[in-house]
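Figure 6 in text form: structure in, sequence out.
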């Protein structure tokens, strides 16, 4: 089976010169096949109009109306506002913050426009911010099918990519030269042909509207099956290749017993079980690739520290990589407290360490350091390890594949470092099967004794005064509290402003209480000073953004207030709640919301109220919000799904897994071609 047209350059298409070709390459669109498989992010339904009077805030809709008034304002920053109305006697304001004079001039009073965008509640009426719009006549027909919306990059517009994909589709080869799945597999799982499926998602018909919008169309199921299959094949190949490489044999040494004896707690049965799994992997001479997942506070870090002690006994080094300076410093303090009494040298390196202190840390890493704890600073070129043989990555989904690959390449000569990946975000089995099929999975499914259940309450923020009084009472009894401010549109600056405003309000309301403020825009030394003061008890209340989501351990803190909890995902709320209940004091978490509360938000908050089981919460989060939300934002180089949606297509995973095994054994050439189709340039980063 020849790839044929699949490898043909995009240059054969009309209008693709050197500049356009370079822009397309930023999206890894190099061949015709890349364009065929550049699938829509979503579909816009422009097949119907909604009367302005019937618009609902939060929905996406298309309306048509006459321009009533145009206003250009310059008070704080340039702004264009256009009021349109329709036969339903409703008025909608179109608001543009970025615009040019010709654009403003096109909105003439009485002109008819068809507008598509997100509806929101403005100051005086409903509005759309930066909607797409077209001037139309009264009898201009509506679209008869959905409009695909594609991923873009700077310099590439939606109309351009739509045109190029449509032209590329005219060169699709016949089904016989294009199909890679065997007929019996397609029949068994009721999958349509690949060619037909691609044409459907790129050129939807009028009958496809409902199924495509619900992500339930047979064409979407077929493409999702292929994408999941390509991903499974790549992970199996990675695992096979990695297991052929040599790694340092690490065996539990003389310091294991004194370390376990010196710990101020006994390991749980789950920790002991997972530690034995790590011991087995580390001793076999092949690179360990293991994911350890456990709920908030289950004790993953101490298991990693014990493995690091074994590496030190073997004369090799461990690197522990954490996503934030706050978490890295906390890990450093814990690991140093556990290991340094045994003569194991622990070094800390992060971006904030400068000058002579940094030079010394670099010299120690190249010299006699046994364990190095840090942030992404460990990946920098200047960092040279003496004998890096074990890599521990905490909250690994926060790191891009390039970063993990860079650290692995700092290993000891031809020996590949062992990898231990940890996460406190419990990953549902369906997700682990897809994203971590190259890893063995260990689960710490038992909390240490002494942890107290956290009582969770859901209340309206109209009862803020009651909550403040509750803080006053808790702190009067010698306890401490957190007040977490909302996540605002992924903006660290806006989050910081919200935290500062809340800090001011609480300082005024609780003048006798020492209160601290912590947010991402503060200098590292100020963050550290605030956390030290809170951990020592000098501060009784900490107002913070979600920077405290992981790694912060203050056993005396027994009250967690989360403001605007309806804006956050279940797993993030669970992580934040896990900051309390760490001692023997009865603890509470108050989830404050801004009414009215939507059905989905209400369901999320009720899940938190009903259970503290992180795995149950993660399963519900996957169902309610999808894997992207559960795992956090993917970074550059990460293998991201284009069409597969694990909450929609989870039932296909066992069939996909079986198909991957079959194709690798019976059709390796087709398997390789399938992987190249879907993963392409990203495949070389997959073994990070």
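Output sequence:
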């Amino acid at each position: 089976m020849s790839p044929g047209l699949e490898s043909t350059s995009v240059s054969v298409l009309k209008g693709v010169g050197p500049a356009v070709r370079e822009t397309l390459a930023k999206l890894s669109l190099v061949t015709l096949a890349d364009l065929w498989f550049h699938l829509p992010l979503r579909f816009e339904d422009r097949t119907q109009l909604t009367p302005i009077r019937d618009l609902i805030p939060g929905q996406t809709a298309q309306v048509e109306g006459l321009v009533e008034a145009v206003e250009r304002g310059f008070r704080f920053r340039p702004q264009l506002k256009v009021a349109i109305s329709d036969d339903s006697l409703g008025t909608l304001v179109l608001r543009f913050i970025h615009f040019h004079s010709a654009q403003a001039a096109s909105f003439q009073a009485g002109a008819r426009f068809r507008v598509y965008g997100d509806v929101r509640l403005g100051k005086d009426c409903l509005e759309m911010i930066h909607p797409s719009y077209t001037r139309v006549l009264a009898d201009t027909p509506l679209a008869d099918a959905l409009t695909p919306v594609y991923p873009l990059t700077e310099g590439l517009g939606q109309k351009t990519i739509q045109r190029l994909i449509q032209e590329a589709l005219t060169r699709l080869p016949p089904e016989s030269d294009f199909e890679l799945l065997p007929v019996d597999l397609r029949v068994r799982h009721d999958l349509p042909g690949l060619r037909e499926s691609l044409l459907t998602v790129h050129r939807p018909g009028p009958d496809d509207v409902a199924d495509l919008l619900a992500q339930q169309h047979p064409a979407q199921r077929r493409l999702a099956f292929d994408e999941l299959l390509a991903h499974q094949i790549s992970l199996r190949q990675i695992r096979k290749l990695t297991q052929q490489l040599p790694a340092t044999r690490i065996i539990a040494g003389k310091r294991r017993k004194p370390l376990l004896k010196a710990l101020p707690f006994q390991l749980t049965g789950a920790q002991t079980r997972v530690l034995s799994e790590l011991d087995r992997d580390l001793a076999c001479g092949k690179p360990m690739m293991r994911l350890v997942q456990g709920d908030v506070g289950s004790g993953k870090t101490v298991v990693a520290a014990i493995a690091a002690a074994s590496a030190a006994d073997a004369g090799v080094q461990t690197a522990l990589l954490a996503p934030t300076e706050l978490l890295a410093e906390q890990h450093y303090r814990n690991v140093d407290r556990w290991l340094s009494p045994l003569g194991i040298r622990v070094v800390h390196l992060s971006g904030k360490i400068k000058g002579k202190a940094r030079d010394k840390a670099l010299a120690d890493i190249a010299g006699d350091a046994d364990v190095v704890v840090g942030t992404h600073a460990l990946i920098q070129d200047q960092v040279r390890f003496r004998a890096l043989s074990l890599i521990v990555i905490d909250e690994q989904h926060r790191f891009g594949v390039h970063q993990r690959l860079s650290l692995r390449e700092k290993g000891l000569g031809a020996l590949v470092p062992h990898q231990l990946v940890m996460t406190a975000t419990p990953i549902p089995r369906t997700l682990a099967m897809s994203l971590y099929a190259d890893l063995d999975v260990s689960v710490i499914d038992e909390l240490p004794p002494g942890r107290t259940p956290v009582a969770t309450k859901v209340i309206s923020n109209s009862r803020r005064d009651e909550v403040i009084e509750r803080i006053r009472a808790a702190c009067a009894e010698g306890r401490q509290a957190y007040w977490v401010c909302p996540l605002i549109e992924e903006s660290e600056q806006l989050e910081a402003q919200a935290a500062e405003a809340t800090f001011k309000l609480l300082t005024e309301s609780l003048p006798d209480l020492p209160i601290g403020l912590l947010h991402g825009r503060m200098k590292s030394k100020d963050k550290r000073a605030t956390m030290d003061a809170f951990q020592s008890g000098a501060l009784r209340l900490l107002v913070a953004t979600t920077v405290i989501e992981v790694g912060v351990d203050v056993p005396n803190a027994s009250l967690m207030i989360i403001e605007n909890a309806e804006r956050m995902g279940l797993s993030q709320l669970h992580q934040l709640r896990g900051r309390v209940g760490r001692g023997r004091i009865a603890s509470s978490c108050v989830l404050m919301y801004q009414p009215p509360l939507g059905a989905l938000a209400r369901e999320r908050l009720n899940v938190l109220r009903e259970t503290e089981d992180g795995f149950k919460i993660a399963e519900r989060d996957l169902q309610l919000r999808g894997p992207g939300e559960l795992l956090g934002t993917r970074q550059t180089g990460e293998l991201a799904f284009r069409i597969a949606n694990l909450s929609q297509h989870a039932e296909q995973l066992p069939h996909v897994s079986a198909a991957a095994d079959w194709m690798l054994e019976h059709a390796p050439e087709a398997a390789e071609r399938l992987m190249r189709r879907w993963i392409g340039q990203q495949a070389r980063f997959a073994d990070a």
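Caption detail: The longest helix spans residues 218-242.
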